[in-house]
Amino acid sequence: MARPKIPRRIECHPPASCFKPNGVPISQLARVELAPDELEALRLVDQLGLQQQQAALQMQVSRQTLANLVKAARFKVVDCLLHQKALYIQSMDIDPSD
């Protein structure tokens, strides 16, 4: 039995959206999904320029988990850019008790 996933602190809550190459119908594109925690990891490290340790503390995860999230997210983004795939950003269910 797998360990339960520990909740992560995510401050960026974009609506669900899709980015795709121009001129290609969405029905002809492969779909790649970027999870909310992957997007948050990219935002903290690449957009805000935080060190991985600082970003991990902000997300309340280990540095290794943060590094894994950044690596997976970068792979997905580059894969979509190079191979003309649609990149879907998953929406996040926000808990009103937060």
TrEMBL record:
Pfam families: DUF134. PANTHER family: PTHR37478, UPF0251 PROTEIN TK0562. Belongs to the UPF0251 family. This is UPF0251 protein G3T61_05360. The lineage of its organism: Bacteria, Pseudomonadati, Pseudomonadota, Gammaproteobacteria, Vibrionales.
